[in-house]
Amino acid sequence: MGRLAGKRALIAGAGGLLGSDIARGFAAEGADLILTTRTVAKLEPLAAEIRALGRRCAAVAADFTKDEDCDRLADAAWEAFGGIDIVLFSSQPANPNLGDLLSTAEDDWRAQQTSIAWGPLRIMRRLAPKMIAAGGGGSIITLTSSTGDEPVPGYGAYGIAKATLWAVTLYMAAEWGKFGIRANGLQPGSIATGNNADELEALLRKNGALKNTALGRMGRNHECLGGAIYLASDESSFTSGQRLKVNGGRL
Asked: Rounded to an integer, what is the distance from CA 200 to the centroid of its chain?
């Protein structure tokens, strides 16, 4: 029996590389999954892979910038397997580097805030009452970013939205803890994704970008799985309002 056996998990942003790897990890640990991204067709290969493991899996298209999509996703996710035990928000914008505070377009500011912070909050405002009424508690995990703590040129809109998401996470932990619902953040850092991970690490090592990372290397997606599974599982039953940083010891 896996650590997530019998759990029902919503993975928001499962179309991304990290989100899809977390989905595979949750399925391997026994969870049934509801996957979402903007285009269902993008999720079908992953859904088929998860079903081949013997897990139930449903795919739902949703655009977090649209309130009606958030509401529809929350309802569909709950109804898919008769409840939700785990919600993980891992959606990432295609291009987080949009410019500085003055040059970033107003529409981009709104889109980042809406998709990264408001979308997850709206979904949980619809799901949390159902989770509370069901009396089973639950685990909410948000993927935060170091750009919300340490400004990076060009990432203002993204970093501020991620900082807002972390604040939302803390408030969910504080307000819903009495119902047994836990909320935590998972903050990957210095993680190489894609097929060029080795080349990227070599480049960063050459230009000195890894000098402030204690382990002296970049991480890989699979190295985030342990943290995500811990926060999703009953092993973290007394952990809430915390942020787990998986960044190789960034100093």
From this structure: 23
1 or 65, higher pLDDT: 65
Catalytic residue flag (residue 230): no
For residues 139 and 184, the answer to whether their CB atoms sit within 8 Å is: yes
Radius of gyration of the chain measured on its C-alpha atoms: 18
**pLDDT for 194:** 67
Which amino acid does the sequence have at 91? Answer: S
pLDDT at 205: 81
Domain annotation covers residue 251: no
Yes or no: say if 191 and 223 are a contact pair by the CB < 8 Å rule: yes
How far is the C-alpha of 18 from the C-alpha of 128, rounded, in Å? Answer: 25
Asked, for residue 43, whether it belongs to a domain, the answer is yes
Positive or negative CA dihedral for 86, 227, 14, 111?
Answer: positive
What total number of domains does the chain contain?
A: 1
Q: What is the pLDDT of residue 250?
A: 83
Q: In which element (H, E) is residue 112 found?
A: helix 106-113
Domain that holds residue 99: 8-246
Whether the predicted pLDDT of 217 surpasses 80: yes
Q: In whole angstroms, what is the distance from residue 216 CA to residue 25 CA?
A: 26
Contact 219, 146 (CB under 8 A): no
Asked if residue 189 is part of any domain, the answer here is yes
CATH number for the domain spanning 91: value is 3.40.50.720
**150 CB-side CA count, 13 A:** 5
For the stretch 82-128, pLDDT in tens is 999 999 999 888 788 899 999 999 999 999 999 999 999 999 999 99
Residue 54 lies in a domain: yes
Considering the candidates 155, 158, 171, 230, report the single residue annotated as catalytic: 158
62, 126 Cβ separation under 8 angstroms? no
